[in-house]
Task: inverse folding
């Protein structure tokens, strides 16, 4: 018996020996008068066992079979060892046809010592979240993430992509060997070809995107965005692009596990997986409905016009004799 049950039994014996009234007993144990009567009757019949719950030793009707628990735990330890609990539960439903509560899975994983440990969060400055844009296509947050996307079984590469600020929808995602001018131009071009030109791109300050204190047209990316009649906005802090920074955390957790499960270890296969499966599945799960249904994407550009915009253009002055210099040659 625990301490509370011991006290209940002691008070019940006081009542049975006429040293306490039933009213005083019910007040001391915090039960109703009728419940106190029931407890006294059980103590008279069963002595100390009378204060124990009636379901003591009974097997719950909704208890999961031990064989199923062992099977699920073995799956999590082997095939899905790098999945978080929520992601693992989705895979159990999709691939194994097994439906188990998330918290039950979390409890089993904790008992088995196989739960993915979350990174300890230090005390950081709190940033007030900026409200989402009301319409799709008003703002695209664009960025890149260099990471060991193939879990050590392939080259370290960069994932470039864009996310719609209003919906959280991935509008473009592609692997490249590195983040450079050509890869950034291609990734942005594909977004425009597939969805249209947005009102603005939200970029960080980097070699390809320039600095906030200079006119954005001095970079090839800024010039291309201006020719699309869009605007390039440079963020001053990583927190300003919070949605795409959180997207990278999600992808580094979920996407890496999905590709490891399918034995994808090169850029070509990874890009095929993104376009044919992952982006659509991710958007179904995480995208939200915008406040206004009207879209701001402009689709008035042909493929030829897009190719003329997303290329390298240089300004040169014509000198005497109607000649100009380019890359140290005339």
Result:
């Amino acid at each position: 018996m625990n301490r509370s049950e011991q006290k209940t039994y002691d008070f019940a014996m006081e009542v049975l020996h006429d040293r306490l009234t039933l009213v005083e007993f019910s007040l001391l144990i915090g039960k109703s008068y009728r419940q106190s009567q029931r407890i006294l009757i059980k103590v008279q019949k069963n002595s100390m066992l009378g204060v124990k719950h009636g379901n003591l030793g009974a097997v719950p009707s909704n208890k999961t079979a031990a064989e199923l628990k062992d099977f699920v735990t073995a799956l999590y330890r082997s095939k899905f060892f790098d999945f978080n609990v929520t992601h693992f539960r989705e895979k159990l439903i999709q691939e194994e046809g097994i439906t188990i509560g998330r918290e039950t899975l979390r409890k089993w994983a904790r008992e088995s010592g196989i739960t993915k440990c979350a990174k300890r969060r230090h005390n950081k400055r709190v940033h007030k979240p900026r409200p989402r844009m009301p319409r799709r296509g008003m703002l695209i947050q664009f960025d890149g993430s260099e990471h060991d996307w193939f879990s050590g079984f392939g080259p370290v590469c960069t994932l470039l992509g864009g996310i719609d600020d209003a919906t959280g929808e991935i509008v473009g995602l592609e692997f490249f060997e590195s983040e450079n001018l050509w890869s950034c131009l291609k990734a942005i071009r594909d977004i425009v070809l597939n969805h249209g030109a947005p009102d603005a791109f939200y970029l960080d300050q980097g070699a390809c995107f320039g600095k906030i204190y200079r006119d954005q047209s001095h970079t090839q990316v800024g010039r291309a965005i201006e020719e699309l009649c869009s605007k390039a906005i440079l963020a001053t802090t990583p927190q300003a692009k919070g949605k795409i920074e959180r997207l990278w955390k999600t992808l580094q957790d979920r996407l890496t596990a999905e590709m490891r499960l399918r034995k994808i270890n090169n850029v070509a296969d990874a890009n095929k997986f993104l376009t044919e499966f992952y982006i659509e599945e991710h958007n179904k799960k995480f995208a939200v409905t915008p406040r206004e249904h009207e879209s701001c994407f402009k689709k008035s550009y042909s493929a030829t016009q897009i190719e003329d915009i997303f290329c390298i253009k240089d300004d040169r002055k014509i000198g005497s004799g109607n000649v100009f210099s380019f890359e140290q040659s005339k």
